[in-house]
Design goal:
about 110 residues, Jelly Rolls
Length: about 110
């Protein structure tokens, strides 16, 4: 994996796309000690398992359609929609139509770098 920490210019194609769950791949695009940008590719039917973490997360729907659950509330989202997931709130999704999500985390997800 290329270490993109603090790099100003990042070539997306050089960033590794790695499988993180069945039907889900992630690409770390850029990060500093405080902020991380991650692109997530979902196949139709793939599940982002319900989970929580101590990071605040903003998710932007680039393409596709997803049913998200955040804090026990479910909603279908589409391209252009975004969601705020404050630290430690339970959240997850099911991909209804193949798509891409862009996640911003603060602080960074150090577990993604291991």
């Amino acid at each position: 994996m290329i270490d993109w920490k603090d790099r100003v210019w990042n070539d997306r194609e050089a960033c590794n796309l790695e499988e993180c769950a069945p039907g889900v791949c992630r690409r770390i695009l850029a990060y500093t000690d405080e902020l991380m940008c991650v692109e997530n590719h979902f196949e139709k039917g793939a599940v982002g398992a319900l989970h929580q973490h101590p990071h605040t997360q903003i998710t932007y729907v680039v393409s596709g359609q997803f049913e998200f659950e955040i804090g026990g509330i479910k909603k279908v989202v589409k391209p252009g929609d975004s969601m705020l997931k404050k630290d430690s709130i339970k959240h997850g999704c099911v991909c209804l139509e193949e798509g891409i999500l862009l996640d911003i985390f603060t602080p960074i997800r150090e577990d993604f770098l291991q």
